[in-house]
Amino acid sequence: TQPQSIDPATLSLTTYTLPQDIAHFKQHGRLIPLSDGIACDHTMSGIEFAGIIYGEVKLTLSVTADTYFTVFIDGERVENRFAATTDTTELVIANFDTAEVHNVRIVKQTEPQFSLCTLKSVTLTGELGDAPADKPIYIEFLGDSITCGCSTILMALSPNKADGVVSAESAETDAVIAMTTAELLLNKQGYGS
User: Fold this and answer.
1) 25 vs 22, 28, 49, 96, 130, CA distance in Å?
2) I want to staple 128 with a disulfide (CB 3.0 to 4.6 A). Which of 12, 51, 166, 188 is the partner?
3) Which of 176, 17, 170, 193 is nearest to 107 (CA)?
4) What string of H, E and C letters represents the secondary structure of 151-173?
5) Distance between CA atoms of 190 and 42, rounded to whole angstroms?
6) Can you tell me the mean pLDDT for 152-180?
7) How far apart are CA 189 and CA 140, in angstroms?
């Protein structure tokens, strides 16, 4: 059966501030609470939330350099990566045509040596529930740049290029560990160098 749509006129615009409203967010990876947000510096670190959502979902953030993110909506990866620069303070990470229960996860792709990031708040029309539940199995990987997805895009486009890795050429969700854990429906934490 199809999910029941809710009348958007009954929903309010709400801002969930981090880390104060962290009870609504599942934390992925290594996140550190700060006075003005949560540090989201490592690849595949990010937040996940679910609730009744309508319209745009805006993430307020700050980054120290060009930074790339991947978003998953209702379990499906959004094809285009999201990019933030030092001038970016807000990203629209989702936009829903109907008011119903949705799940949104955003993870950082850029390695910490290229960019540091602070996630500050999420604003949406609707209401979030409690943080999504953990999956039944948790696996932790220790690895190197391969674990972090370093150069996965670069190598796909230019397999003979050896040097000059930049954040635009890396995507941890394209690394074999991320794809394996996604297929097995496992929690994952990767530590690379």
Assistant:
1) 5, 9, 5, 19, 7
2) 51
3) 170
4) CHHHHHHCCCCCCCCCHHHCCHH
5) 9
6) 57
7) 5
